[in-house]
Write a structure and sequence with these properties.
This protein is α+β, with helices and mostly antiparallel strands. The protein has two domains: 115 residues, Roll (2,3-Dihydroxybiphenyl 1,2-Dioxygenase, domain 1); 134 residues, Roll (2,3-Dihydroxybiphenyl 1,2-Dioxygenase, domain 1), CATH 3.10.180.10. The protein contains five helices and 16 strands. The chain has an eight-stranded mixed β-sheet with strand order 2-3-4-1-5-8-7-6, covered by helices on one side. It is globular. It starts with 11 loop residues before the first strand and ends in a 6-residue tail after the last helix.
């Protein structure tokens, strides 16, 4: 979302990551994606830092106390036209409000919630002007909810924002839907199955585009060199070549090269959804 992008509730409007060592996290993402940082010199602003790619905002970095009882993680924020109304709707459709709504001075209003399947997500009523750069290498290109109850997640988010949802798996062995509303498709959900450990809770997996000249495999090597770890080594999909990794604080995210794709199987309707085709 940029200043000249039409505003639609339900679009991805921001992402941020928590860290037990903000300085190390800044170095990690600078080395991985070429991020620079707009650090507020005012001590009263806390440790929240805006990450830039090519001068455009791409993410936020927030410090958390080492002893804090909260997981280090990447968080997705969806745009809201009225944060109080959205919070009411979240609870009405079976979700929870975990924090807020609160005002973020000069940035609008925000709250953190959880959908009925347990996926934690943020909602933001942006204050103008609002800038968020996506889809290019080093920025967010795809956000995927991994959940144990795909149908319930589909219903909740459709009720919340009126998403158009398309099943691009076979619905049985691979249950995967994309969600869109008034802009490029960046949202999806995957139903976890017996291949996943049952103790894994519902969670959002944020996918960052890699430089095609380096590729997913080369970027994975860079993750290791910078002190991160690999959760799932690169594999080919209809979306692109993907790997799942973690930064030095333990925040999980995915890397994707959307220029390297496998053809969909005959049962797939992936080519009808148009996902990633415009990126």
């Amino acid at each position: 979302m940029t200043e000249d992008t039409p505003f639609f509730p339900g679009l991805v409007c921001w992402i941020d990551v928590s860290s037990i060592d903000p300085a190390r996290s800044r170095d990690f993402y600078a080395g991985l994606f070429g991020w620079t940082y707009d650090i507020d010199p005012d001590p009263g602003s806390g440790s929240y830092t805006i990450a830039l790619r090519g001068g455009a905002p791409v993410a936020g970095l927030a410090g958390v106390p080492v002893e804090a009882d909260q997981p280090v993680a990447w968080r997705l924020y969806l745009a809201s036209a009225n944060i109080v109304h959205t919070a009411d709707m979240v609870t009405q459709w079976g979700g929870q409000v975990l924090y807020g709504p609160v005002d973020a001075p000069g940035q609008g209003s925000v709250f953190i919630g959880a959908d009925p399947t347990g996926g934690v997500i943020g909602f933001w009523e942006p204050g103008p002007p609002w800038m968020f750069h996506t889809t290019d290498p080093g920025s967010l290109i795809w956000a995927e909810l991994n959940t144990w109850d795909g149908q319930l997640a589909d219903e909740f988010y459709a009720n919340l924002f009126g998403y158009q949802q398309h099943q691009i798996g076979d619905g049985r062995y691979v249950d995967y839907t994309t969600w869109s509303r008034g802009g490029p498709t960046m949202l999806a959900r995957l139903q976890m199955n017996e291949d996943w450990a049952r103790e894994i809770p519902a969670h959002w997996m944020l996918h960052f585009a890699v430089d095609p000249q380096i590729g997913t495999d080369g970027t994975v090597n860079r993750v290791l060199d910078l002190g991160g770890r690999v959760e799932i080594y690169p594999y080919d999909t209809e979306l692109g070549r993907i790997a799942r990794v973690a930064d030095p604080s333990g925040a999980n995210f995915a890397l994707i090269d959307p220029t390297v794709r496998v053809l969909p199987p005959p049962t797939s309707i992936a080519d009808e959804s148009g996902y990633l085709h415009n990126h």
